[in-house]
Amino acid sequence: MSDHDHSYKLLFSHPRMVQDLLQGFVHEDWVRQADFSTLERVGGSYVSDDLREREDDVIWRLRLGPEWLYVYLLIEFQSRPDPFMALRILVYTGLLYQELVKGGHLTHNGKLPPVFPLVLYNGEPPWGAAQEVAELIEAVPGLMAYRPNMRYLLLDEVRLGADEVGPSENLAAALIRLENSRAPQDLQAVIGLLVRWLHAPGQQDLRRAFTVWIKRVLLPARVPGIELPEMSDLNEVNTMLAERVKQWTEEWKAEGLQAGIQQGLDEGRKQGRQEGRQEGRQQGRQEGLQEGRQEGEAALLLRLLTRKFGPIDEPTRARVLGADAEQLLVWGERVLSAATLAEVFEA
To answer: Are strands 45-47 and 53-55 parallel, antiparallel or unpaired?
Structure first.
């Protein structure tokens, strides 16, 4: 299990996180009937009949409605797509049910309690995996009725709408906003909210869990190679960000532009090779490669200029398109430090 998954497991070992996750993101009737004051953590490590150990991420139970009917929440954390996640959920649920039978944890009717499987996904690629286990099984006429039917709910953090992760006092939403942040100011704003929301003495462990995740997972991913000071509380994280937000903003911007320039140059060279091969049939391979490369680099520079300074006027556009490769490279390097469009083209 990765540091990210370990830190998520630590965060969701707190009932407040589970409650905010369900109330904020699971829009189903049973959530409104649930008694969250009864939330109770359930062990998630089982040994199957063939003596192989399987371990879930986090399992909780809570009272639902007027009766002592428990809904078991099986929460699985994922940072990359798993095409057979539906099968994993089915196996985990079966092992959980075996333990409930052994322990006599049945409903008053002698039946198994319901299970709510939830997959919390924070990866960049779209999920795409089947959410119903029956979809993983070949459809054979006459055998369709024997396929297991079980699905899980997927919460895709990266693709949640802005209205779902707004500024309301919801810790799960704050976690997702931090995951999706792309600027130091965004981090500072959300961490400031967490400092206010988790100020009570009884919330010390949860503050500590957020601090560990921010320091060991979130910040190293945002500012790789930066040595971070010792921080044991969210207040210290907030203070550190306030001191470094301007510096990190410039570094992130420079790194982003440099990466964009490099990517664009690579694309320009690729485009130049492709156009060069076609042009070379008529006027010579070398001439086509050169022209194609310059066209790609000019297109990249125009894209970077537009992104940083807004729409580019026609005389400037014509100047870029008519420049040679060496001049385009000089202008491209100036984009990183120029405060105005004119500074890019200064003599």
So the answer is: antiparallel
DSSP symbols for 202-220:
GGHHHHHHHHHHIIIIIHH
Name the amino acid, one letter, at 259: A
Nearest to residue 72, comparing CAs of 89, 59, 85? Answer: 59
Residue with tokens 């000071």: 229
- 115-121 and 45-47 beta bridge pairing: unpaired
pTM (global) more than 0.85: no
Residues 333 and 323: beta-carbon distance below 8 Å = no
Which residue type, as a one-letter code, is found at position 45?
A: S
What are the tens digits of pLDDT across the range 260-288?
555 555 555 566 555 545 554 455 444 54
**Alpha-carbon distances, residue 204 vs 32, 112, 197, 282 (angstroms):** 28, 36, 11, 73
HSE of 285, CA atoms in CB hemisphere, 13 A: 2
Q: Are 128 and 78 in contact (CB under 8 A)?
A: no
Residues 257, 261, 267: CA angle, nearest 5 degrees: 140
- C-beta of residue 221 within 8 angstroms of C-beta of residue 212: no
Q: What b-and-e string marks burial along 153-162, b requiring 16 or more CB atoms within 10 Å of the CB?
A: ebbebeebee
Non-local CB neighbours of 270 within 8 Å, separated by 6+ positions: 296
Residue 9 CA to residue 45 CA, distance in Å, equals 14
Handedness of CA 167, 168, 169, 171 (dihedral sign): negative
Neighbour tally for 285: CB within 10 Å = 14
* Tens-digit pLDDT profile for residues 206-265: 988 998 888 888 888 776 667 777 777 888 887 777 766 666 555 555 545 455 555 555
Q: Is 140 helix (H, G, I), strand (E, B) or coil?
A: coil
Contact by Cβ (8 Å): 122, 4: yes
CA 331 to mean position of chain CA atoms: 35
Residues 46 and 95 sit within 8 Å (Cβ to Cβ): yes
Cα–Cα distance list, 83 to 86, 122, 129, 321 (Å) = 8, 15, 5, 46
CA 242 to chain CA centroid, nearest Å: 24
**What is the spatial distance between Cα 111 and Cα 115, in angstroms, rounded to a whole number?**
12
